[in-house]
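If your schedule permits, I should be very grateful for your opinion on a structural question. The matter concerns a single protein, recorded as an amino acid sequence and a row of backbone structure tokens. Could you please explain, in whatever detail you think fit, how the structure tokens follow from the sequence? I set the record out below, with my sincere thanks for your time.

——
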Amino acid sequence: MKNIYSLLCILFLATGINAQNTENITFLHQGKTVFGNFSTPDNAESFCTVIINAGTGANDRDGTLPMVGANVVCLYPGLLNETLKPYKQLSDALVEAGYAVLTYDKLEYTYPGTQLGAITFEKLWLPVNSAIDYVKTRSDVDTTSIILIGHSEGSTIIPYLAKNRNDVKALVSIAGPRSPLDSLLAYQIVHITETCDGSVPDAQAQANQILEYFEMVRAGTWNSTTPHFGGVSPGVWSEYIQMADSVSINYNLANLPTLFTGLGDDLNVPLTELSRLQNEVTITDDFWTIPNLNHFMTTATNPNVSPVLTDTIIYWLDQQCMTTGINSPAGVGFSFEVFPNPFSNDFRIMGNVLEGHIMEVVVRNVVGQEIIRENLNASGDFKHRFSTSLWPKGVYLVSIISDTSTITKKVIKQ
């Protein structure tokens, strides 16, 4: 399992970050209108497209979460009275990096209570199926490059969909569980109660009721008088459990490039879940631990989604889509590429510059410390080699500065 250190705070210093266009969109799913956003950069006509599949609950497209109440006081005091918008911020980072992104309001958010109508497994958990169908109708989507990002429960669903389709290019799991839903719920209830000095016997009794209910669901011993759990019938829960209990198998059957990320301070889906997935999923070696982040992708005191997480995802996605969000803007007068990236011992830059530009190359580490500053005597094509034998492993930012512009690119030493 790979670890990204807490100091890995990525600083985008480029002037060429993509502007963003956001369009309100709708699509149909199981007879219901789904509302969402489709956001794109300005700099291309056909995009590698990411669909964000949200976690449990009646989430809106932004994942809006007011941090209030007794549990927040206990568990997240540094975020008290903040309003988190993790999916909005994740989307913004991806668009800045050159990707189109679809986010949507979950049906239980748009149609609360009885407005949703009869609840089925397909209706409640699989709107992302219809989201894929929708983006394929757009002329600005590269239909060969559709990527699904699942957060929490959403990461359980994406391999189930992908194994039955041939139009998904890659998968990303953020804080995804391996344990069955009931086991995880039981753990959360007891653990949070213990942490916040509540009644542990009461919490354990509630946890046992959940475990017993789902044991009955798995055994198929319910009948017409069996009560619903969370507004969902045992028959629908049975379909859900068959999907969720097989999450590792589904990732293997999907057999797609897949990135798994676990969050170091996650109280909802502990890091042991990432270890369980790593022990069972055989189609990838990309399992990354991001320290100091909670389930909502933020630190304990900052309400914004951590750039360490978004940069990790973007770096991995760039390998799948061969795209970059730091492009040479029109009229800059120079461009350059970095290779190899990632690198082990040294790396080179290669590019082209118009005559009459004064050039300087600066390399910084991820906390902004300057490692190298050199004049770059270039006219026309240029090459420059960096010897890095004494550099620690990690992420570095290479900037080329002219008298009019700056372009920055990221390199990683393995």
